């Protein structure tokens, strides 16, 4: 087996781990980074996106439209949750943890009761390709590109659009933004919806590759929180580099010693980073800059 | 949704009281019911495979109560949702034994849960049925196991696969007692048959991403893969392996027969999966068809009638037979009946008998093959395979009750 095969396989595994970390974490990072809300129902927004995607595909829609539908429905559910629960708890950050945890229990158990214990999968599109001795799934490359696309899209949204400017103003000094005529409540709602929609997008993208069950969100949660904790409060300076660092740790450890060591590696990386950089990678970068 | 509904739902979710309606409790309000505790996972990672067990127990209890109960006493179910959580098993096992004072408990899916509650059954001198296939070796007079064990599932499956596909075997197993001990059995049987382990990997429960494991398998170039993956998260392997075109035959003791993966995933991701199971709904015999029809009549929306549902169903009837023959619900009286060695019944799978030495059960083992369109065929059937390993290794519950679990590398101490 030649060097190129090894290099490609390492890159593929890195890209695969990177995509999973970034896509799981983006929604959580937006909600935590922009609003300071720790959303324990994040996994259930992912589940919502996956279920809606699968349901619409079963109903006859093509997969890309199904993923869009999953994203939109999750974002709408996000708006409702923000209006009904989160809005009343902005000055009580610890209570939002309990409230969103409660929501996640309700969502998991409610789905189990109403939709049943499993849902039929939709099948992974595109097939596979061969490099050297190994064959790879093409869809995994699509997921990697989607992760890069999401990061680029978020960057554009928050830096180049009017909504992005208003959102950043609201997050930095809410009173001043309100005094200047920004509808801060609307901005909060939309930001939360954006985070929920990103979670739904992750669910929709991974729906074809996974078991569809009410508890599926839980399998994303550890990776999502680890990435956000390491990344810190900023989506671009935090989530993206954290995803890259963790993807290297995870893919190297997993190929060396198996899945268990991949998970151990992730958690050890968190302990080290939290000890050395309490505010995460983005906190470190921002402090250097000022 | 109003606040009170939300609160109710949340309370129900937290306390696990959302049990599926059991009308028989009101139907027969007789004086002195026989109480059967049901501790199964009705939510959480294992729920897909285990809700059917609860339904099977309800079906059997209904039938028995309609036919006059057990010795004229109605059978009353005391169900709790253990939420795929080992600590819930311990909590609810204490509750059914101490507060509800049940006569017998049917409990458990994962081996981790069983080993979590078994010391409590022993401590409070209870009586429990474990109606699930597992890694074998439990030699405990307080337990009756109706599920299949490795000498029934692997001693049949692995030699068949090695003959058909080759002698290089790769094991991909869940990383807890079930997966570790089952992998030990696979290793032992592969070696005995002159084969070689191309590799082994243990996957923590709850892992759902398998790209690297898939590559490890391709690197090892096995002739077939033994998949001992447990829980719905790990089931994502099949879809991901199929999309990476791994295209290796698979052998398993847990798939299809428990989690009906061939129904949940889009064909052909489970193509060439071979499973040894003592029951699945596709089995084409009059007894099986009759059981399936009764099940569907009572639970029309049941997604699949699996192996563990049948184990649970026949366990209720076995319990009835033993109580009626012992004329008592006391464990020691019932064990005297078991010691006679003729506790048998015609189950949906075929004839089954309880082995007095190990209190495990003989089974008809069906080799199920999943086709490219996910249709099931049965290339081979083994009738009356006995759970012989424990007895041969030295476990004899008619003489001594060590209340322990043994493995090939840790057999019972020689007398």
From TrEMBL, chain A:
Signal peptide coordinates: none
InterPro entries: ABC_transp_permease (IPR001851), BCAA_transport_permease (IPR052157)
Gene Ontology terms, MF aspect: transmembrane transporter activity
Cellular localisation: Cell membrane
Cellular component GO terms held in the UniProt record: plasma membrane
UniProt-listed GO biological process terms: amino acid transport
Transmembrane segments: 17-38, 67-86, 98-117, 137-158, 186-208, 220-248, 260-277
Topological type in the membrane: Multi-pass membrane protein
Family: Belongs to the binding-protein-dependent transport system permease family. LivHM subfamily.
PANTHER family registered for this protein in UniProt: ABC TRANSPORTER PERMEASE PROTEIN, BRANCHED-CHAIN AMINO ACID TRANSPORT SYSTEM PERMEASE PROTEIN LIVH
Name assigned to this protein: ABC transporter permease
Species of the source: Bradyrhizobium nitroreducens
Automatic annotation (TrEMBL), chain B:
Origin: domain of life: Bacteria
Keyword DNA-binding: no
Signal peptide segment: 1-29
Alphabetic keyword roster: Signal
Signal is among the record's keywords: yes
All copies of domain Leucine-binding protein, residue ranges: 33-373
Transmembrane segments: none
InterPro entries: Leu-bd (IPR028081), Peripla_BP_I (IPR028082), Urea_ABC_transptr_substrate-bd (IPR019968)
Family: Belongs to the leucine-binding protein family.
Entry-linked PANTHER family: ALIPHATIC AMIDASE EXPRESSION-REGULATING PROTEIN (PTHR47628:SF1), PTHR47628
Protein name per the record: Urea ABC transporter substrate-binding protein
Species for this entry: Bradyrhizobium nitroreducens
